[in-house]
Amino acid sequence: MVDVNLFDGHPVIMVDTIMSLRRLIGVFETASIIGIDTEWKPMFLSTVEQVALLQVSTRSCSYLVDVIKLEEEIGEEEWMEFFKALFCTESSMKL
């Protein structure tokens, strides 16, 4: 695995396993600010688009959540746990 930094001291971590997703859930508990962005899988001539990559950043680290890869490994319950931790944690501001 290649170590990548967005800028000096700010690593970028790939989240593509259930274990790495669970570690990210733990990060939400202590983060004061969380930035969120998405990338979409192109579906030409289709009315349905699917999120391919979810980008989540804190003050100290950025995470790339590979939604397509994780869909092969986790189910609805795990997704609900993740999104509840991401969006319903009152101690952090979401941008």
Helical amount: 25-40%
CATH architecture verdict: 2-Layer Sandwich
C-alpha geometry: globular
The SSE order reads EEHEEEHHE
Protein name: 3'-5' exonuclease domain-containing protein
GO molecular function, one term: nucleic acid binding
Organism: Parascaris equorum
Domain 3'-5' exonuclease: 13-90
Summarize the structure.
This protein is an alpha/beta fold and 95 residues long.
Structure description:
The chain is of the alpha/beta class. The protein has a single domain, classed as Nucleotidyltransferase, domain 5 (2-Layer Sandwich), CATH 3.30.420. It has three helices and six strands; from the N terminus they run ββαβββααβ. It has helices at 18-28, 67-71, 76-87; strands at 4-7, 10-15, 33-41, 50-57, 62-66, 93-94. A six-stranded mixed beta sheet has the order 1-2-5-4-3-6. Strand 1 (4-7) and strand 2 form a beta hairpin. Helix 1 (18-28) runs parallel beside helix 3. It is globular, with a radius of gyration of 14 Å.
Topology:
Layout: E1 4-7, E2 10-15, H1 18-28, E3 33-41, E4 50-57, E5 62-66, H2 67-71, H3 76-87, E6 93-94
Parallel strand pairs: 2-5, 3-6
Antiparallel strand pairs: 1-2, 3-4, 4-5
Helix pairs in contact: 1-3
Pfam family, one: DNA_pol_A_exo1
GO molecular function: 3'-5' exonuclease activity; nucleic acid binding
Protein name: 3'-5' exonuclease domain-containing protein
